[in-house]
Design a protein that fits this description.
The protein is built from no helices and eight strands. With 114 residues, it is mainly β. The chain has a single domain, classed as 10 Kd Chaperonin, Protein Cpn10, Chain O (Roll), CATH 2.30.33. The strands form two sheets. A six-stranded antiparallel sheet has the order 6-7-1-4-5-8, with no helix packed on it. It has a two-stranded antiparallel sheet with strand order 2-3. Strand 6 and strand 7 form a beta hairpin. The termini are far apart.
């Protein structure tokens, strides 16, 4: 269109298709300091060893069988790759690195809800 300039950054977003057994997920933004159940203040910079993290699934590859977009997944933060797309932070996981799935679906789960 004459007179309209689009930069590569402000142009339309390209769809992302994950390959094989890969899962693209987005972690919630850290809120900084938090308190333990006992009331101890834990600073945002504190690293908790061997603690698993939750993220929301954005896209899945064609060979992923148990996870759908919109599910929340539990994974080890050491078993991931980080990527930035249009200023948003995402993590890429393999399906085998996911330890648990929390979703709205009702299919042969444990009956536990978050």
């Amino acid at each position: 269109m004459p007179g309209v300039e689009q930069s590569a950054r402000s142009g339309p977003k390209q769809p992302i298709t994950m390959l094989a057994d890969r899962v693209l997920a987005q972690q919630p933004v850290a809120e900084g300091e938090r308190r333990s159940r006992a009331g101890i203040l834990i600073p945002a910079t504190a690293q908790v060893s061997r603690r698993l993290s939750w993220a929301e699934v954005v896209a899945v590859g064609p060979h992923v069988r148990t996870v759908k977009a919109g599910d929340k997944v539990l994974f080890n933060p050491e078993d991931r790759f980080e990527v930035e797309v249009h200023g948003d932070e995402y993590v890429i996981l393999r399906e085998r690195d996911i330890h648990a799935v929390a979703s709205e679906r009702m299919d042969s789960g444990t009956g536990l809800y978050l």
